[in-house]
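Quick illustration, no need to memorize.
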Amino acid sequence: MNRFIDFRELKVLIFIPLLVYFFYAIAEVFFWIAVFDFMYTNNFTEAEMDEAIISSVLVIGGLLLIIGFFNTLTAYLVAGYLKGSFVKSAVLTIIVVEVIDLLVLYVLPADDSVFPLWRDMVFFAVGWGTIVLGAWAACYKRERQAKLS
């Protein structure tokens, strides 16, 4: 029987993103500690803090860097284990990462910050793009090794 995904691949598809998400959460906590420490040290008011969190280029760039690195790592590790094409690896990884994000947002309490639509679009584009990049890198490495042997 030709299955789309077997049980070992399903375990990898769930376990690796959860493990990487754990390290992603730790990195983001340390990032926010550094941001708030900087703001409190420089006597930012509450309004200035809210504005800096929503529209600061350094904050947005730092978050994009963290998201990009961990999404690429997740896709690279998952695609290295999955049998099949690059598209299968990328799509399944995007689905799993987004489900984990939704579960985490559902479980954790939400703050009252409302982010502009352009920021959400940039974060989705970078997140999904880095997942595709990581899956492509793993599949390219696998195909190259297959050609050499």
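The chain has a mean pLDDT of 86.
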